[in-house]
# Entry
Amino acid sequence: MSTQALSGNTPAPAPAPREPRAVDPATRPYRFSDVVRSEWTKVRTVRSTWWTLLATAVVVIGLGALIGLGVGSHYKHMGLGDRLTFDPTRVAFFSLLFGQLAVSVLAVLVVTSEYSTGMIRTSLQAVPRRTWLLSAKALVFAAIALVVGEILSFATFFVVQALLKAGPAPTSSLGQPHVLRAVIGAGLYLTVTGLLSLGVATLIRSTAGAITIIVAVYFVLPVFSNALPSNWANPVQKWLPTGAGQQIFSVKPQSHYFTAWPGFLVLCVYTAIVLVAAGFALNKRDA
# Structure
């Protein structure tokens, strides 16, 4: 018998390694990614989201096709001046002026639907960091709007160019200078104008009030500016968010307006100011 066995100093067996315990999501601090997933679940499970996106597709592609058909058949009756300034790429995106309203309605509903049902109190209790809540809503909406906007932009472009060619009228192709930028820019324009609407909705907290302001900015102000004297109308139209931002999907620059990227930057600055103001208001006031 060994000395260790006689003395009772047999070494104890090594403890079995412990398996790492999974962290319960209900007990750990929430992360921004959790807020984003929550907002994505809210948006995709609401029926109005899909109806609004369907309406956007119908308006942008359907109305774009009608405009392309009409402009294509009318081209042969245009004067020389109109033919020199004819921009077949911009013609493809005339329908965006109405499609942006449908996208903006979706942006408004992302915010105001919770105020109308009172669910905003639950959301703010679950996410005390209110800027995170607004940022998550903006991020989820921007992702949806960008994907849908780019798909609709390319689809509308190809449909309208085919109809213009049948007109016959001049057409554009993606290989021509600045055309690809304009097509991609059309989707970016829809996204940023939607984010601007989301900021307005956060400030107003009313579906009807937010949509009224959006219609005034996107449609009434441009029409009103046309009634002003030219020395007033030109600078007003140049600095309007829609007038500046729409240059991103134009190939031929328009007089008295910014060029493509500076104009789009002006729209982005307007949007950033409204979103910052919305975040400040969300933090300072009650639900």
Q: What stands out?
A: Residues 130-166 form the longest helix (37 residues). Confidence is low (pLDDT under 50) at residues 1-8. The two ends are 80 Å apart (CA to CA). The chain has 13 helices and no strands.
